[in-house]
Design goal:
The protein has 391 residues and is an alpha/beta fold. Helix content is 39%, strand content 20%. It contains 15 helices and 14 strands. The chain binds adenosine monophosphate.
Length: 391
Protein backbone atom coordinates (compact mmCIF):
# COMPACT_ATOMS: atom_id res chain seq x y z
CA UNK A 1 0.00 0.00 0.00
CA UNK A 2 1.31 3.46 -0.90
CA UNK A 3 1.40 6.05 1.87
CA UNK A 4 2.63 9.63 1.57
CA UNK A 5 4.22 11.52 4.51
CA UNK A 6 3.93 15.28 4.20
CA UNK A 7 5.48 18.12 6.19
CA UNK A 8 4.27 21.58 5.15
CA UNK A 9 5.94 24.80 6.22
CA UNK A 10 4.66 28.24 5.29
CA UNK A 11 6.72 28.20 2.07
CA UNK A 12 7.82 24.57 1.81
CA UNK A 13 6.46 21.07 1.35
CA UNK A 14 8.58 18.02 2.18
CA UNK A 15 7.34 14.59 1.21
CA UNK A 16 8.30 10.96 1.32
CA UNK A 17 6.32 8.11 -0.24
CA UNK A 18 6.44 4.64 1.26
CA UNK A 19 5.41 1.18 0.24
CA UNK A 20 3.82 -0.12 3.42
CA UNK A 21 4.05 -2.27 5.45
CA UNK A 22 7.51 -2.94 3.99
CA UNK A 23 8.51 0.65 4.97
CA UNK A 24 10.34 1.04 1.68
CA UNK A 25 10.94 4.65 0.56
CA UNK A 26 9.85 4.95 -3.09
CA UNK A 27 10.50 8.64 -3.65
CA UNK A 28 11.14 11.74 -1.55
CA UNK A 29 11.65 15.43 -2.09
CA UNK A 30 11.06 18.98 -1.08
CA UNK A 31 9.33 21.98 -2.67
CA UNK A 32 10.88 25.26 -1.57
CA UNK A 33 10.06 28.96 -1.77
CA UNK A 34 6.36 28.25 -2.45
CA UNK A 35 4.63 31.55 -3.17
CA UNK A 36 8.00 33.34 -3.36
CA UNK A 37 10.13 34.24 -6.37
CA UNK A 38 12.81 31.67 -7.24
CA UNK A 39 10.80 28.59 -6.26
CA UNK A 40 12.12 25.11 -7.06
CA UNK A 41 11.86 21.47 -6.03
CA UNK A 42 14.20 18.55 -5.60
CA UNK A 43 13.31 14.90 -5.87
CA UNK A 44 15.22 11.81 -4.82
CA UNK A 45 14.45 8.57 -6.59
CA UNK A 46 16.56 5.43 -7.16
CA UNK A 47 19.56 7.12 -5.55
CA UNK A 48 19.36 10.02 -8.01
CA UNK A 49 18.65 13.63 -7.06
CA UNK A 50 16.83 15.90 -9.53
CA UNK A 51 16.37 19.67 -9.10
CA UNK A 52 13.83 21.67 -11.12
CA UNK A 53 13.16 25.39 -11.07
CA UNK A 54 9.48 26.11 -11.56
CA UNK A 55 6.92 28.66 -10.41
CA UNK A 56 5.09 27.38 -7.32
CA UNK A 57 2.18 29.73 -6.80
CA UNK A 58 0.82 27.87 -3.80
CA UNK A 59 0.81 24.49 -2.04
CA UNK A 60 -1.89 23.14 -4.37
CA UNK A 61 0.38 23.69 -7.38
CA UNK A 62 3.18 21.92 -5.48
CA UNK A 63 0.86 18.95 -4.82
CA UNK A 64 -0.17 18.80 -8.48
CA UNK A 65 3.47 18.73 -9.58
CA UNK A 66 4.19 16.12 -6.93
CA UNK A 67 1.46 13.88 -8.37
CA UNK A 68 2.77 14.43 -11.94
CA UNK A 69 6.25 13.41 -10.75
CA UNK A 70 4.87 10.30 -9.04
CA UNK A 71 3.21 9.32 -12.32
CA UNK A 72 6.05 10.22 -14.67
CA UNK A 73 8.54 8.35 -12.47
CA UNK A 74 6.12 5.39 -12.45
CA UNK A 75 5.84 5.39 -8.67
CA UNK A 76 2.06 5.27 -9.16
CA UNK A 77 -0.07 4.69 -12.26
CA UNK A 78 -3.37 5.91 -10.82
CA UNK A 79 -4.06 8.43 -8.06
CA UNK A 80 -6.21 5.93 -6.18
CA UNK A 81 -3.12 3.85 -5.44
CA UNK A 82 -2.25 6.47 -2.79
CA UNK A 83 -4.34 5.16 0.09
CA UNK A 84 -3.20 7.52 2.81
CA UNK A 85 -1.56 10.91 3.29
CA UNK A 86 -0.13 11.75 6.72
CA UNK A 87 0.46 15.40 7.59
CA UNK A 88 2.82 16.62 10.30
CA UNK A 89 1.22 19.20 12.60
CA UNK A 90 3.30 21.02 15.21
CA UNK A 91 0.66 21.92 17.80
CA UNK A 92 -2.18 19.59 18.79
CA UNK A 93 -2.76 21.19 22.20
CA UNK A 94 -4.63 19.06 24.72
CA UNK A 95 -7.08 17.93 22.02
CA UNK A 96 -4.94 15.27 20.42
CA UNK A 97 -2.96 12.50 22.11
CA UNK A 98 -2.61 10.43 18.96
CA UNK A 99 -2.73 10.53 15.17
CA UNK A 100 -6.27 11.00 13.82
CA UNK A 101 -8.10 10.98 10.50
CA UNK A 102 -8.82 14.49 9.22
CA UNK A 103 -12.36 15.85 9.29
CA UNK A 104 -13.72 19.40 9.52
CA UNK A 105 -13.75 19.32 13.34
CA UNK A 106 -10.06 18.31 13.39
CA UNK A 107 -9.19 21.14 10.99
CA UNK A 108 -11.13 23.63 13.14
CA UNK A 109 -9.15 22.55 16.23
CA UNK A 110 -5.79 22.82 14.42
CA UNK A 111 -6.89 26.28 13.31
CA UNK A 112 -7.91 27.26 16.85
CA UNK A 113 -4.45 26.17 18.08
CA UNK A 114 -2.69 28.42 15.53
CA UNK A 115 -2.25 31.03 18.25
CA UNK A 116 0.25 28.63 19.89
CA UNK A 117 2.07 27.79 16.63
CA UNK A 118 1.47 30.77 14.33
CA UNK A 119 4.04 29.76 11.71
CA UNK A 120 3.29 26.06 11.59
CA UNK A 121 -0.37 25.19 12.16
CA UNK A 122 -1.79 27.44 9.39
CA UNK A 123 0.75 25.95 6.94
CA UNK A 124 -0.37 22.44 7.84
CA UNK A 125 -4.00 23.36 7.10
CA UNK A 126 -3.00 24.76 3.72
CA UNK A 127 -1.23 21.45 3.02
CA UNK A 128 -4.21 19.35 4.12
CA UNK A 129 -6.63 21.36 1.95
CA UNK A 130 -4.32 21.09 -1.05
CA UNK A 131 -3.94 17.32 -0.59
CA UNK A 132 -7.73 16.91 -0.22
CA UNK A 133 -8.29 18.72 -3.50
CA UNK A 134 -5.60 16.93 -5.48
CA UNK A 135 -5.97 13.41 -4.02
CA UNK A 136 -9.62 13.35 -2.83
CA UNK A 137 -9.89 9.59 -2.26
CA UNK A 138 -6.88 9.19 0.03
CA UNK A 139 -7.40 8.98 3.80
CA UNK A 140 -5.82 12.12 5.26
CA UNK A 141 -4.34 11.91 8.74
CA UNK A 142 -2.64 14.39 11.07
CA UNK A 143 0.35 13.43 13.21
CA UNK A 144 1.01 15.86 16.04
CA UNK A 145 4.43 16.83 17.44
CA UNK A 146 2.76 17.32 20.82
CA UNK A 147 0.76 14.04 20.97
CA UNK A 148 3.51 11.87 22.49
CA UNK A 149 3.81 14.29 25.42
CA UNK A 150 0.14 14.16 26.36
CA UNK A 151 0.90 11.42 28.91
CA UNK A 152 2.63 13.95 31.23
CA UNK A 153 0.99 14.44 34.64
CA UNK A 154 -0.70 17.73 35.52
CA UNK A 155 2.01 18.55 38.08
CA UNK A 156 4.58 18.24 35.27
CA UNK A 157 2.84 20.18 32.53
CA UNK A 158 1.53 23.11 34.58
CA UNK A 159 3.48 26.32 35.16
CA UNK A 160 3.40 28.01 38.56
CA UNK A 161 1.58 31.05 37.20
CA UNK A 162 -2.03 32.17 37.91
CA UNK A 163 -4.18 29.08 37.29
CA UNK A 164 -6.54 31.12 35.10
CA UNK A 165 -3.75 31.42 32.50
CA UNK A 166 -4.16 27.67 32.06
CA UNK A 167 -7.98 27.55 32.11
CA UNK A 168 -8.52 30.73 30.06
CA UNK A 169 -5.51 30.77 27.72
CA UNK A 170 -4.33 27.11 27.65
CA UNK A 171 -0.90 28.08 29.03
CA UNK A 172 0.87 24.80 29.92
CA UNK A 173 3.73 22.60 28.75
CA UNK A 174 2.91 20.78 25.50
CA UNK A 175 6.41 19.81 24.32
CA UNK A 176 7.47 19.23 20.71
CA UNK A 177 9.50 16.80 18.56
CA UNK A 178 7.14 14.12 19.95
CA UNK A 179 7.19 12.03 16.77
CA UNK A 180 11.00 11.89 16.93
CA UNK A 181 11.14 11.09 20.66
CA UNK A 182 8.56 8.35 20.14
CA UNK A 183 10.45 6.86 17.18
CA UNK A 184 13.84 6.67 18.90
CA UNK A 185 12.27 5.41 22.15
CA UNK A 186 10.55 2.59 20.24
CA UNK A 187 13.79 1.73 18.50
CA UNK A 188 15.73 1.82 21.79
CA UNK A 189 13.22 -0.59 23.32
CA UNK A 190 13.73 -2.90 20.34
CA UNK A 191 17.49 -2.75 20.90
CA UNK A 192 17.10 -3.36 24.67
CA UNK A 193 14.60 -6.15 23.93
CA UNK A 194 11.89 -4.95 26.33
CA UNK A 195 9.22 -2.31 26.77
CA UNK A 196 9.54 -1.65 30.52
CA UNK A 197 12.42 0.78 30.22
CA UNK A 198 13.53 4.17 31.52
CA UNK A 199 14.92 6.21 28.64
CA UNK A 200 16.26 9.73 28.21
CA UNK A 201 15.89 10.75 24.57
CA UNK A 202 17.92 13.75 23.37
CA UNK A 203 16.67 15.29 20.10
CA UNK A 204 19.42 17.83 19.51
CA UNK A 205 19.17 19.63 16.22
CA UNK A 206 18.70 23.27 15.34
CA UNK A 207 15.71 23.01 17.68
CA UNK A 208 16.44 20.75 20.63
CA UNK A 209 14.53 18.92 23.34
CA UNK A 210 15.01 16.11 25.83
CA UNK A 211 12.33 13.70 27.04
CA UNK A 212 12.04 11.27 29.93
CA UNK A 213 10.27 8.15 28.67
CA UNK A 214 9.06 5.40 31.01
CA UNK A 215 7.66 2.14 29.59
CA UNK A 216 7.32 3.82 26.18
CA UNK A 217 5.36 6.79 27.57
CA UNK A 218 6.57 10.36 27.93
CA UNK A 219 6.70 11.51 31.58
CA UNK A 220 8.49 14.82 31.02
CA UNK A 221 9.96 16.91 28.23
CA UNK A 222 12.03 20.06 28.06
CA UNK A 223 10.03 22.14 25.56
CA UNK A 224 7.07 24.06 26.93
CA UNK A 225 4.09 26.04 25.71
CA UNK A 226 6.20 26.70 22.63
CA UNK A 227 9.45 25.19 21.31
CA UNK A 228 11.43 27.96 23.03
CA UNK A 229 11.94 26.28 26.41
CA UNK A 230 14.45 23.93 27.96
CA UNK A 231 17.72 23.49 26.11
CA UNK A 232 19.85 26.20 24.54
CA UNK A 233 19.29 25.89 20.78
CA UNK A 234 20.74 27.24 17.56
CA UNK A 235 19.09 30.64 17.90
CA UNK A 236 16.57 30.07 20.74
CA UNK A 237 17.35 30.84 24.36
CA UNK A 238 15.52 27.93 26.02
CA UNK A 239 14.93 28.37 29.78
CA UNK A 240 15.53 31.87 31.11
CA UNK A 241 14.35 33.92 34.08
CA UNK A 242 10.94 35.17 32.82
CA UNK A 243 11.47 38.60 34.35
CA UNK A 244 14.30 39.31 31.89
CA UNK A 245 11.55 39.85 29.30
CA UNK A 246 9.72 42.83 30.86
CA UNK A 247 13.04 44.21 32.19
CA UNK A 248 14.65 44.41 28.71
CA UNK A 249 11.39 45.52 27.07
CA UNK A 250 11.25 48.48 29.46
CA UNK A 251 14.94 49.30 29.03
CA UNK A 252 15.03 49.11 25.23
CA UNK A 253 11.36 49.88 24.39
CA UNK A 254 11.19 46.65 22.39
CA UNK A 255 7.74 45.56 21.20
CA UNK A 256 6.47 42.05 22.10
CA UNK A 257 7.16 40.99 18.50
CA UNK A 258 10.74 42.29 18.62
CA UNK A 259 11.29 40.52 21.92
CA UNK A 260 9.91 37.30 20.44
CA UNK A 261 12.33 37.62 17.52
CA UNK A 262 15.27 38.27 19.87
CA UNK A 263 14.48 35.20 21.99
CA UNK A 264 13.77 32.89 19.04
CA UNK A 265 16.12 34.11 16.31
CA UNK A 266 18.98 36.02 17.97
CA UNK A 267 19.67 33.97 21.09
CA UNK A 268 21.07 30.50 21.80
CA UNK A 269 24.40 29.54 20.20
CA UNK A 270 24.08 32.52 17.87
CA UNK A 271 23.38 35.01 20.66
CA UNK A 272 26.28 33.91 22.86
CA UNK A 273 28.89 33.28 20.14
CA UNK A 274 27.92 36.20 17.89
CA UNK A 275 29.09 33.87 15.10
CA UNK A 276 26.42 31.33 14.08
CA UNK A 277 23.47 29.19 15.11
CA UNK A 278 25.05 26.16 13.44
CA UNK A 279 27.07 23.92 15.71
CA UNK A 280 29.52 23.16 12.87
CA UNK A 281 30.48 26.86 12.79
CA UNK A 282 30.76 26.89 16.59
CA UNK A 283 33.13 23.90 16.44
CA UNK A 284 35.19 25.65 13.77
CA UNK A 285 35.27 28.84 15.88
CA UNK A 286 36.54 26.83 18.86
CA UNK A 287 39.33 25.37 16.71
CA UNK A 288 40.30 28.90 15.72
CA UNK A 289 40.42 29.96 19.38
CA UNK A 290 37.20 32.02 19.44
CA UNK A 291 36.45 32.45 23.17
CA UNK A 292 32.75 33.18 22.71
CA UNK A 293 32.25 30.06 20.60
CA UNK A 294 33.86 28.09 23.41
CA UNK A 295 31.61 29.80 25.97
CA UNK A 296 28.50 29.09 23.86
CA UNK A 297 29.45 25.40 23.54
CA UNK A 298 30.09 25.08 27.29
CA UNK A 299 26.69 26.59 28.11
CA UNK A 300 24.97 24.43 25.46
CA UNK A 301 26.48 21.20 26.79
CA UNK A 302 25.93 22.21 30.45
CA UNK A 303 22.18 22.59 29.82
CA UNK A 304 21.93 19.17 28.13
CA UNK A 305 23.72 17.55 31.09
CA UNK A 306 21.43 19.38 33.55
CA UNK A 307 18.31 18.02 31.85
CA UNK A 308 19.64 14.47 31.64
CA UNK A 309 20.52 14.62 35.35
CA UNK A 310 17.07 15.98 36.21
CA UNK A 311 15.32 13.22 34.27
CA UNK A 312 17.62 10.54 35.70
CA UNK A 313 16.37 11.51 39.15
CA UNK A 314 12.76 11.79 38.01
CA UNK A 315 12.87 8.35 36.35
CA UNK A 316 14.77 6.93 39.37
CA UNK A 317 17.41 5.55 37.04
CA UNK A 318 17.98 5.18 33.33
CA UNK A 319 18.37 2.18 31.03
CA UNK A 320 19.67 4.13 28.03
CA UNK A 321 20.40 7.65 26.79
CA UNK A 322 19.66 8.27 23.11
CA UNK A 323 21.20 10.97 20.90
CA UNK A 324 19.37 11.95 17.71
CA UNK A 325 18.78 14.81 15.18
CA UNK A 326 21.42 16.99 13.44
CA UNK A 327 23.81 17.59 16.33
CA UNK A 328 22.97 14.40 18.24
CA UNK A 329 23.62 12.22 15.21
CA UNK A 330 26.61 14.09 13.77
CA UNK A 331 28.61 15.92 16.40
CA UNK A 332 31.02 13.49 18.09
CA UNK A 333 32.50 16.30 20.21
CA UNK A 334 29.15 17.46 21.65
CA UNK A 335 28.18 13.87 22.47
CA UNK A 336 31.56 13.24 24.10
CA UNK A 337 31.34 16.41 26.21
CA UNK A 338 27.83 15.44 27.36
CA UNK A 339 28.90 11.88 28.20
CA UNK A 340 32.01 13.14 30.06
CA UNK A 341 29.73 15.39 32.12
CA UNK A 342 27.71 12.33 33.12
CA UNK A 343 30.66 10.36 34.55
CA UNK A 344 29.18 10.76 38.03
CA UNK A 345 26.24 8.62 36.86
CA UNK A 346 28.65 5.94 35.65
CA UNK A 347 28.54 6.84 31.96
CA UNK A 348 31.78 5.83 30.20
CA UNK A 349 32.11 7.06 26.61
CA UNK A 350 33.85 4.86 24.04
CA UNK A 351 35.86 7.36 21.94
CA UNK A 352 36.26 4.95 19.01
CA UNK A 353 32.62 4.01 18.58
CA UNK A 354 31.56 7.62 19.27
CA UNK A 355 33.63 8.76 16.30
CA UNK A 356 30.78 8.17 13.86
CA UNK A 357 28.07 10.18 12.05
CA UNK A 358 24.42 9.40 11.46
CA UNK A 359 24.60 5.68 12.17
CA UNK A 360 22.85 3.63 14.84
CA UNK A 361 25.69 2.89 17.26
CA UNK A 362 26.35 2.07 20.91
CA UNK A 363 28.84 4.78 21.93
CA UNK A 364 29.65 3.76 25.51
CA UNK A 365 31.92 0.99 26.79
CA UNK A 366 30.55 -2.36 27.98
CA UNK A 367 31.12 -1.37 31.63
CA UNK A 368 29.26 1.95 31.32
CA UNK A 369 26.41 1.94 33.88
CA UNK A 370 24.11 3.61 31.34
CA UNK A 371 24.49 2.68 27.67
CA UNK A 372 24.32 5.63 25.27
CA UNK A 373 23.22 5.19 21.67
CA UNK A 374 23.03 7.22 18.50
CA UNK A 375 19.68 6.41 16.88
CA UNK A 376 19.01 8.40 13.68
CA UNK A 377 15.48 9.74 13.87
CA UNK A 378 12.86 9.11 11.18
CA UNK A 379 9.76 11.26 11.71
CA UNK A 380 8.50 10.61 8.17
CA UNK A 381 8.45 6.87 8.81
CA UNK A 382 6.49 7.37 12.05
CA UNK A 383 3.95 9.45 10.10
CA UNK A 384 3.70 6.70 7.46
CA UNK A 385 3.29 3.98 10.11
CA UNK A 386 0.51 5.83 11.94
CA UNK A 387 -1.25 6.64 8.67
CA UNK A 388 -0.97 3.05 7.43
CA UNK A 389 -2.46 1.84 10.72
CA UNK A 390 -5.43 4.20 10.37
CA UNK A 391 -6.03 3.39 6.69
P1 LIG B 1 18.25 19.42 12.46
O1 LIG B 1 17.50 20.58 13.00
O2 LIG B 1 18.00 18.14 13.19
O3 LIG B 1 18.18 19.29 10.97
O4 LIG B 1 19.81 19.75 12.77
C1 LIG B 1 20.48 20.76 12.10
C2 LIG B 1 21.72 21.11 12.86
O5 LIG B 1 22.58 19.98 13.02
C3 LIG B 1 22.62 22.13 12.15
O6 LIG B 1 22.19 23.44 12.38
C4 LIG B 1 23.96 21.87 12.78
O7 LIG B 1 24.06 22.66 13.95
C5 LIG B 1 23.91 20.40 13.21
N1 LIG B 1 24.82 19.56 12.43
C6 LIG B 1 24.60 18.96 11.25
N2 LIG B 1 25.70 18.28 10.84
C7 LIG B 1 26.64 18.44 11.79
C8 LIG B 1 28.00 18.00 11.98
N3 LIG B 1 28.60 17.22 11.08
N4 LIG B 1 28.65 18.38 13.08
C9 LIG B 1 28.06 19.17 14.00
N5 LIG B 1 26.78 19.61 13.89
C10 LIG B 1 26.08 19.27 12.81
Amino acid sequence: MKILSVNCGSSSLKFQMYEMPEEKVLISGVFERIGIEGSFYTIKINGEKIKKEVELKDHKVAFEILIDELKSNQVVKFLDEIKGIGHRVVQGGAYFDKTVVVDEDVIAKIDELSALAPLHNPAAIVGIRAAQEVVPNAVQTVVFDTAFHQTMEEETYLYAVPYEWYTDYKVRRYGAHGTSHKYVALRANEILGRMNTKLITCHIGNGASISAVKDGKCVNTSMGLTPNAGLIMGSRCGDIDATIVPYIMEKTKMSPKEMDTALNKQSGLLGISGVSSDSRDIEEGIHKGNERCLLAQKMYVRRIIDYIAKYYVELEGCDAIIFTAGVGENSASTRREVMDGLKVLGVIADPDSNNVRGKETLITTSDSKIPCYIIPTDEELMIARDTYALV
